[in-house]
Amino acid sequence: MARKTAPDSSRRSERSRRAILDAALELVGEVGFGKLTIEAIAARAGVGKQTIYRWWPSKAAVLFDSFLEQSGGAGAEITLLDTGDIVADAKDVLRATVDTMDDPKYALPTRALIAESQSDPELGAEVNARVLEPQLAAWTGRLRAAQEAGQIAPDADLRVAVEMLVGPIFHRWSLRTLPMSHAYADAIVDQVLGGIAMPPAPTPAPVATPGPTDS
Amino acid sequence: MARKTAPDSSRRSERSRRAILDAALELVGEVGFGKLTIEAIAARAGVGKQTIYRWWPSKAAVLFDSFLEQSGGAGAEITLLDTGDIVADAKDVLRATVDTMDDPKYALPTRALIAESQSDPELGAEVNARVLEPQLAAWTGRLRAAQEAGQIAPDADLRVAVEMLVGPIFHRWSLRTLPMSHAYADAIVDQVLGGIAMPPAPTPAPVATPGPTDS
């Protein structure tokens, strides 16, 4: 029997890699992070344990790659849509976030990592560095472009603004206080941009008074 | 030996009740909600198991009373400070929230409940109904008073505004993305009220034109 050629072997590797990433994501949603094992991932993916250990040092490392795969691929820099209209673009991204968080494929593993991170700050720090901060940085970048285009006030704190956009979504999703919706995403964007304070009363038109003339 | 008089017995009951509530809060922070038992609460509080079962049907019920005790007592309606200045009052409340969330006595049990609620939506719903929603309702009430006083735009969505205030705090605390601070609380309030959009250019002063006179 002929030995496998390189292209075949590489296709087979890619198939195994995908199967492992999918299995890790499914399993952590089913059993939680604490009970997730490399053995179970290998069994679900139909590969040997040694195949996983050849590519990843730990179950956490497998999981992070599973999440990164979903948000554009490991190592890929995330950038947000920029049509020049910050309100429309922010609504697009936040609506997509609502859809993703409502999808059990993504929601269950995310809940498992959040639950575990509550009592394991080191895991939480890894999740932040590998998965969350690149997304927050992409938001900050998009807001900075809007600021440079004169659509956002020059003294606005952009990091705080990002947390005002994603924080309400995360609060409602994580605590399940109310259903999420595109209308919720839109209302957040409108109020983050426009504020909720009563707009200042229009300045009264200056009373025309005779003044010194210009020469 | 004389039998205990009623006042003594009532004082002793109150002492036991406080010991039980404190023990439940400490223990859930130490071992998590899943491993919390009525037996362990009784042992830590120095009371018999039957004393706890006489007053509470479950460990969750004990815990909710522990949280309510901290936020003003079970059954007490929560209202927020109203000095007439919504910006100052909101900063006061949000700074206090930052301080509470940074206090391990409150933070550890809260993290334990949040972790458990991720995979137990029924527990999450109870936490919301008993502990969280009364606090969100108090915020909404304070914003409504400001709206009636003409400080908040009449068309602002107050529920979304509340989540824009507490969501960023919860996001940063729960995910430990950055340290919390009073400056963070202040920035959130300022940007939620004022918005981050570039203020519209001032309307040019109307050109004085001769108009119809008033009689």
Automatic annotation (TrEMBL), chains A, B:
InterPro entries per the UniProt record, alphabetical: Homeodomain-like_sf (IPR009057), HTH-type_TetR-like_transc_reg (IPR050109), HTH_TetR (IPR001647), Tet_transcr_reg_TetR-rel_C_sf (IPR036271), TetR_C (IPR011075)
Occurrences of domain HTH tetR-type (ranges): 14-74
GO MF terms, alphabetically ordered: DNA-binding transcription factor activity; transcription cis-regulatory region binding
PANTHER family registered for this protein in UniProt: HTH-TYPE TRANSCRIPTIONAL REGULATOR RUTR, TETR-FAMILY TRANSCRIPTIONAL REGULATOR
Keywords associated with the record: DNA-binding, Transcription, Transcription regulation
DNA-binding region location: 37-56
Organism field: Streptomyces buecherae
Stated name of the protein: TetR/AcrR family transcriptional regulator
Pfam families, per database record: TetR_C_11, TetR_N
